[in-house]
Amino acid sequence: MLKQTEKRPKIMGYLPNDVPPFGQIVLLGFQHALTMFPATVLVALLVGFHTSTVLLASGLATIAALLGSRYGIGKFIPLYYGSSFSYIAAILAVTNASFGQPVSDELIRVAQAGIVATGIINVLVGLLIRFAGGKRMLDTILPPIVTGSVAAVIGLALGKAALDMASGVAGGISGGDLKWWSVALVTLFATILFSVYLQGKGFIGMLPILLGAVVGYALAALLGMVDYSTITQARVITAPHITLPSFTSALSATAIVSISVMAIATIPESTAHLYQISLYVDHLAEELKQPKYGLSQYVGLNLILDGIGDMINGLLGGAAGTNYGENNSLMVITRNYSGVSLIAAGVIAILMSFSGHLAGIVQSVPTAVSGGLAIYLFGVIGMQGIALLISEKVDFFDPKNLAIGAVVMVIGIGGHIGFPGGFLPLPLLQSVFPYGWPAIATGAVAGILLNLVFQVFRPDGK
């Protein structure tokens, strides 16, 4: 049974099974919802899905995963599930959507079949790891040099997206705009100052992202950059647009192949996120003189929960998801790993899917504010990957590790930033990858394959 946090050393932070006071739970949950909202909604706008449905599925997937871990192993695995960028190209190949315009229900239903298949693949891989090989099998296939490098790539490769939002380029402003940069930089530095100088100052020190967003929003409002119509014109209650997957359409087989294969990108991503959060949770537990959680040993369960989340998305009409590095960064910055606060975030996401005004408030946040936050959050994702490499004592004098890390990072970062949409123009399997090969996924797969080559053909001859 969950209990309020017991008396312990005066170090501010919450472990996964801790239950903060109710008011704190609401604020911490809203901060998580604010963190996941821009990327999750952006994916929906890009692939032609309904934003209200994507929010509903995101909230339900998060709650299902948290409760699954709590009642499965007796402790929360504190992760938030939002829409994944790794699947955008594959879903677009089915929907051929225009930005911000929902496509026909039939095309969404076809894409949903592929998303359900993605969930099944994650569950099968998770079961294989959990009951057949455990952590030893995973370390053979996905050693820290792969997972750490992929985590670093995910954060650093998103750097341009953060700068596009900060400059206004993402909003259609050619060459950027001084107002956008001003708001973004004020948001960024306010958030950094709050996260550094308020740490250890009580509960307020756990809200740097929310406080930074408020500062940025206030400045944006003074500069006339806030569009209040998303609030004033919103309906009080809206019903999410639910659709069921179609497995019998002529396009269903294509969708299943092209979308589900992208699980190869999110499996190492999800594993890296689990390793990262496990590292920081155990560090906080040591400071609080509490038993370590050892969440990194539950990789198989984590992938099963990922798969369940994707099946929820596929059955309702949400975009394929993954556990979010942005929310991991938020937890590291705030030292709040409470599973209950993440459940609150899931509930808030569900409420936003029904509440036009609540969603309208978050939608009114200018991209400059989101960009300022993203510079920090995406950067922390990258730094967490580096922290993982250091904590696992990866030997960078070993040419095998150098080769794997180099390939993952150059293909992932260079390809994502250097080519339109982050897709490598490889003239192979064009029926599966009509827009090109997604660079981050390709880099991850290249690292996995290179590691397997070294496992089979060992340089030491053993």
Architecture overview:
The chain is mostly helical and 462 residues long. The chain has one domain. The chain has 18 helices and 4 strands. The protein has helices spanning 22-47, 51-73, 88-95, 105-141, 144-157, 159-167, 178-197, 208-222, 229-232, 252-260, 263-287, 299-316, 325-334, 339-354, 356-363, 367-391, 399-418, 439-456; strands at residues 81-83, 321-323, 423-424, 437-438. The strands form 2 sheets. It has a two-stranded antiparallel ribbon with strand order 1-2. It is globular and about 65 Å long. The termini are far apart.
Helix and strand arrangement:
Elements: H1 22-47, H2 51-73, E1 81-83, H3 88-95, H4 105-141, H5 144-157, H6 159-167, H7 178-197, H8 208-222, H9 229-232, H10 252-260, H11 263-287, H12 299-316, E2 321-323, H13 325-334, H14 339-354, H15 356-363, H16 367-391, H17 399-418, E3 423-424, E4 437-438, H18 439-456
Antiparallel strand pairs: 1-2, 3-4
